[in-house]
Amino acid sequence: MKRILAVIIALALALSLLSGCGGSQKNEDSIATGGTNNQEDTQKPVEDVKPVTLTMLVSGNKSPDGKDIELDILPKMIKEKFSNINLEATKLPDEQYNTSIKTKLAAGEGPDIFLVWPKTGVCGAIDLSKAGYLMDISGYNIWNNFAKGAVEDMSYDGKVRAVAKGLDLLGIYYNKALFQKAGITEEPKDWTSFLGVCQKLKDAGITPIVTGDKDPWYLQFALYQIAANVVYPDDMDFDVKLQAGEESLTNPKWVKAIEMFNELYAKGYVVKNSLGIGSAQACSMFIDGKAAMIFDGTWDYNTLMAKGEAEFERGFMATPANESGKATYASASTAAGYAVNASTKNADAVKQVFEYWFDVNSSLFAAYRDASSSISVVKGVPLENELFKGVYDIYQNGKSVYFCNQMWPGAVATDMETKLQEMIGGQKTTPQDVTKAMDAKFKELWKN
Amino acid sequence: MNSSVMKRSMYLFVLPALIFYLLFWIFPILKIFQYSVSDYNGFVQKFNYIGMDNYISLFKEGVLVNSIKNTLIYTAVFVLFGNIFSLCLAFILNMNIAGKGVYRSVAYIPTLFSAIVVGFIWSYVYMPDSGLISSVLKAIGIDGSDFNPLGVGTTALYAIVFVEIWKNIGTNTIIFLAGLQTIPNELIEAGKIDGCSSWKLTRYVRIPLLAASITINVTLSVVNGLKAFDYPFIMTNGGPGTATNTLIFKIFKYAYNEQLFGKASALGVVAFTIIIIITGILVMNLRKKEVSL
């Protein structure tokens, strides 16, 4: 009996091995023939054009409907226009992206096209340019259409290194129905009236603000808006001086900004136990109508406009951290942008793709514009989401400051977040301690 | 003559594995020592050697003390309670109760999920106000509005160790259960005839005979505890503040969030040393005990 079983098993194994080999051979054949066929196809219309495969690595969450601009539409439309160019796009969640892109670049395995963020910081255009990973793309025939600020933020050494996706705004999404319920008729115009609005909501039994402080990066959303009104308006060159060693993050203005931030927690305007709530949970609390306001940016538009348990109209405003009688400044910054690997072997193909992609009249640009969540920085493209109009106008009037961490080495913001968590968690950390930690980290890491 | 040729040619067969081992295991470890005295940021290949600065600043900033303390607390709680819980569970599951197969499977289920799933589910369980635990508290009339284990510096570490214990209880229990089944029935019966109470049977017969299982479980738990990374990463991001920064989590954070590969390497060297020392002491002690048995 055992013998028969053994023979059967041996036979089965042998067969599966054989069939495995056969299968793979067939596959190889079909791939090979497929390849040659393709080559013939592509070589027919234009002579001497070799097929090129471009790789692209970007960050973000894939669009659920399968109509992802970077993963689906872009490769397809580029293939239609240039039959010899295949674009292979990969998308990773933000944190994974940051980790993997740097490792890939360091190992010389970087993709042809990838995302970088403006100025310095984690994956910042300046840092990566200094390391020699970004190609100078000033020569591309696209720059006439771009807003100057967006181009400058992506430049290093006077040369453009990336094409910005657009403009991102920070602000407060608020629940108009809850505002009305608390008897608030208009958006607050300065810090005192903002605190008044929070108090009114609290008195009406409504949680004024929900935050996702369990995710450390979330803490930046409110603080950078406050800093934009406290630190920068009288001193737009603050960070330039900081980098030159003439300023310090322990400056009383920064201490004041953090004190104002802390005031929101001390007065009980922020949801209780915010350190136990992550950003996703905070967003769902907002759309469920459990809190009146949430600090967030344009990138979370779809999440925050999604239908939750409650139905209500949303508003969007810049955090009015200004003194009364002064103008409110918005936190607005160039979004991430597409950069080209300095060591790409397909520089010409990439140039062709970029010039088609960002040609205002091309059908690809139209599709890209429609799918983009950031506000466009290309001249003549109107603002898509009416919700952002108020804050966008502030930006247009020049009353805006970039996100503070863009002028710091990445670790400064991380240390700041840790200290802020300690502060709002009641661990006896003072605003001065926070600024001291930020300044110490900055001085440790900043190298000219 | 013939045999010596055999032996020498045998070395050739070891070579491929040895090359891989050296290249992907020993070489990177040595590289860590090199990076730990540099300001390498992980992607710019030009870097400077800065001597012991990384180690000094780790010490000065209190990172070293904090993360070692957190890791040791994590490990101690995990080893102690994880093993006590699973030992109790193993005793219960070893009894002759109806449907014990079902209970045994149920106890093993948490082990089957990946850490990311478990971490995610538990952050909703712990969520203040609308999480599972606070909802239950509310339902039975207790004010759970202050229940926020992950958001309070003093409780966050224990809250995540509990999840680690919950997740690993199945594995530990199975090992104990297997140990219990190997105890010969005659010994138990002999004990009973001699008039042992069931507590005495457990204390003087079952537990000593479980020594081998205890060794395995304690060693595995210590190694897992010292490597703690998943739950601080998924559930608290090391926070609030630095309350759940374990050694390995802090290494990851330095290297990938803060672009401080040099400093991360220095911390890696320290972690390496600590783990070697603790494991060394543990192994020597447990060996002694096994000999004495």
Automatic annotation (TrEMBL), chain A:
Coiled coil: none annotated. It holds the Pfam family SBP_bac_1. Residues 1-19 form the signal peptide. Keywords: Signal. This is Raffinose/stachyose/melibiose transport system substrate-binding protein.
Automatic annotation (TrEMBL), chain B:
One of its GO terms (cellular component) is plasma membrane. One of its GO terms (biological process) is transmembrane transport. It is found in: Cell membrane. Keywords: Cell membrane, Membrane, Transmembrane, Transmembrane helix, Transport. It is a multi-pass membrane protein. Coiled coil: none annotated. The chain crosses the membrane at residues 12-33, 72-93, 105-127, 147-166, 207-226, 264-286. InterPro entries: ABC_transporter_permease (IPR051393), MetI-like (IPR000515), MetI-like_sf (IPR035906). Residues 68-282 form the ABC transmembrane type-1 domain. The keyword Transport applies. Belongs to the binding-protein-dependent transport system permease family. This is Carbohydrate ABC transporter membrane protein 1 (CUT1 family). It comes from Anaerobacterium chartisolvens. The lineage of its organism: Bacteria, Bacillati, Bacillota, Clostridia, Eubacteriales.
